[in-house]
Amino acid sequence: MRILITCSLLLVAGMVQAQLRSTYAQYMLNQGVINPGFADIETRYGGLVSVRKQWMSMGDTPLTGFVSGHYRFTKNHSVGGTISSDQVNNVNITDIGANYTYHLWITRKLALGLGVKVGYQQISMKNQFVYFDQELDPALNRTRKAGLNLGTGISLQSKNLLFGVSMPYLFNNAYANAKAQYSTRFSHFYSTLGYKVRLFKDNFIIYPSVLVKGVSGSPISMSIDGHILLYQLFWFGGAYRSDNSVALSGGLFLEKGLRIVYTYETSNGTAHTKLDATHEISLNYARSIYESPFSKRQYRKRNGKMYKKPYRR
Exposed (0-12), middle (13-18) or buried (19+): which is 60, by Cβ within 10 Å? Predict the structure, then answer.
């Protein structure tokens, strides 16, 4: 029985790498999570803290934590970093990465982002309650595996348009099979498209978006989302997934670039009704280039009044 449990955990670890990369419900607000080629052209710097807990009705269900940040130090160059942790039953996947994005300006308002990510990834298994016999296959005694990972992506963005294609994890870093550690067979492919419709002087913004994810051996999954930002303060909307799950989101866009967003997902419409709900909450901060003290200059006219000169890229 113990051998069976151990083998099952190793199989889960391989499946996690091959099939179960986390998909964040709030991808439209945090594109850098899945696309190394994205750095918001409207912000100077920003950061994100996100927690996602899946399937609350069951014990030891997936728990994902994510921290990221970026800094755009010139019009063309951006750097960033990410730290993520996926806890799935007794298997934990930790990923630490740094990325660089270069923006090629097609027009004055439209930029093509090209990015690359270099990361360190570790897969570990809790084995304090599993007994390993000396005659057992030595591969089963390896409870930790680590390796280099790479990612890449492109983005096309303006003030309203956002399109992206990415593979944030090129290598498999398989747990039990050393030969497959740097295989690209199970690389996840992501594609996103979104467009902001601005009405009433930006007091009513409609933001439809689509996320498509594919990986070898699994059907393509899709998320169709629609959100509204009201008075630059209230964020709300929902999503429909290709597995028939539904998500609802709500949040606040506070002054000075602080965002708090919560998402509730239900599996009641899927074939896995007993999995119950998933919760995701994120805290996001971004400093607009137009609000940065380095982006505006004051000058005095003869009448003594002070005026702000807008930042020009």
Answer: exposed
- Using the Cα atoms of residue 38, residue 40, residue 45 and residue 51 in order, give the sign of their dihedral: negative
Tell me the C-alpha distance between 170 and 182, whole Å.
8
* Euclidean distance between CA atoms 159 and 110, whole angstroms: 8
Q: Which range in 110-119, 176-185, 302-311 is most confidently predicted, on average pLDDT?
A: 110-119
pLDDT for residue 194 is more than 60: yes
Token digits of residue 222: 């899709």
Cross-strand bridge partners of residue 114: 102, 154
> What is the number of structural domains in the chain?
1
Taking each continuous run of H as one helix and of E as one strand, the counts in the chain are 1, 17
Find the CATH number of the domain harbouring 139: 2.40.160.40
- Give the span between the Cα atoms of 21 and 8, in whole angstroms: 19
pTM for this model (two decimals): 0.76
Whether 139 contacts 131, CB under 8 Å: no
Across 40-49, 133-142, 143-152, least confident range: 133-142
Residue 299 corresponds to which tokens in the numbers above? Answer: 């000058």
Q: Which residues contact 265 (CB under 8 A, 6 or more apart)?
A: 25, 245, 246, 247, 248, 277, 278, 279, 280
Cβ neighbours of residue 159 closer than 8 Å, sequence gap 6 or more: 42, 109, 196
- For tokens 């990612």, the residue is 151
| Structural domain boundaries enclosing 305 | 2-309
Tokens 């005026």, located at residue: 307
Q: How far apart are the first and last CA of the chain?
A: 65
